[in-house]
Structure formats: C-alpha cells, structure tokens
Amino acid sequence: MPRRLPLFAFVALTLVSPIGAAAQQADRAADTSSAPAEQPRPSEVVRELELTAMRVQRMLDETRRAGRTQHASCVDEQLSQITATLRLALERTQRTQRYERERNVEMAERERALVTRLLPRARELEREARRCVDPDADTESGRTRVTTIIDADVPRDAIREPRRREGAVHE
User: Fold this and answer.
1) Is 138 within the bounds of a domain?
2) In which domain, by residue range, is 121 found?
3) How far lies 36's CA from each of 29, 44, 109, in Å?
4) Contact, 40 vs 119, CB < 8 A?
5) CB-based contacts of 137: which residues, under 8 Å, 6+ apart?
6) Does pLDDT of 69 surpass 60?
7) What domain count does the chain have?
8) I need a labelling partner for 153 at 20 to 30 A (CA). Which of 104, 138, 160, 171 fits?
C-alpha cells in the first residue's frame, strides 16, 4: 500500500501538469491581446473624475465647518487641481469624439490614452487632500499600526522598550 500512494501522486501530477501549463500560456496570450480593451472609456474617466471632485468638495466643506482654515486651504488647492484635471479630461473627451466622427483613429486613440492617464493623477490628488486633513490617512503608504498588550503578570524588568525607528509613529 505505501508504494501505491507515490505512484498515484506521480500519475496525477503527470496528467494535471500539462493542463496547468496550457492555462498559463493561454493567460499570457490573453494578457497581450486584451491590453487595449482594459482601457476605460473617456466618459468613464470623466465620471470618475467628477466623483473624485465631489468627494474632495465634501471634504473641503467639512473642514471649513470644523474651522480648520489651514487644512481647508490645503484641501482647496487639491480641489482646484482636480477641477483643472476634470476640465482637461472633458476637453480631451470632446476631441476624442470629434476625431472618431472624422474617422481619424490614430488621433482618437491618442486622445483616449491621454484622458486615461489623467485618472491616476486625480486619485493621487485626492489622497493628498486626505493627507491635508489627516496626515495618517495615507492608506497606501504601507505603514501599519501595531498595538502591543503586555500581560500584567510579566515582571516590569523583563519588558524592554523597542527601538524607535525614524519616521515611525509612536504613541
């Protein structure tokens, strides 16, 4: 009986391995051929930019109501940049539509690509606006908050202070 198990595992792996390899090759082929299809339409980008502007506008209103003028000024600067980005996206979307009507595929694709590149910038501006209000709000920085609870039975002399790292938040 012990000899059959390794033989069975060998046969199973021999049969399953080609299927996995074929699936990986198909995935790679799909990745290269579907890259342009993953690009959002200009209208979707404009809608996302509008939503971003509305969220930051609400943030600005709340900051002003709280009387935090310095924070409000910072958020207002970010909102101005988001609004300018939105205007640019609208202009480029109109150009894309014009080029599509004129059947100028090359220029339409160029404008579409430029509109798409505006979305990451707007997302970054929204993160900066959040940082204006709460410097710890940067959720994509990779920082982690660690809370250590020490049992009351542990002798005080057994506890040593951790090393303080530069840039870490200590409470």
Assistant:
1) no
2) 38-133
3) 13, 15, 10
4) yes
5) 127, 130, 131
6) yes
7) 1
8) 171
In a domain, 92, yes or no: yes
- Which residue, 37, 36, 49, 38, is CA-closest to 90? 49
72 CB-near residues (< 8 Å, 6+ apart): 60, 63, 64
pTM here? 0.58
Average pLDDT value for residue range 98-119 = 93
On the question of pLDDT at 164 being above 60, the answer is: yes
How many other C-beta atoms can be found within 10 angstroms of the C-beta atom of residue 59?
Answer: 20
**CA 35, CA 117: separation in Å to the nearest integer?**
15
44-58 pLDDT, tens digit each: 999 999 999 999 999
The token duo for 45 is 């980008």
Taking the alpha carbons of 118, 119, 120, 123 in that order, is the dihedral positive or negative? positive
Res 29: pLDDT? 43
How many Å apart are CA 30 and CA 59, to the nearest integer?
A: 41
Using CB atoms within 10 Å of the CB of residue 22, give its burial: 0 to 12 exposed, 13 to 18 middle, 19+ buried. Answer: exposed
Report yes or no: 118 and 78 within 8 Å, Cβ to Cβ: no
pLDDT category, 135, cuts 50, 70, 90?
Answer: confident
In a domain, 25, yes or no: no
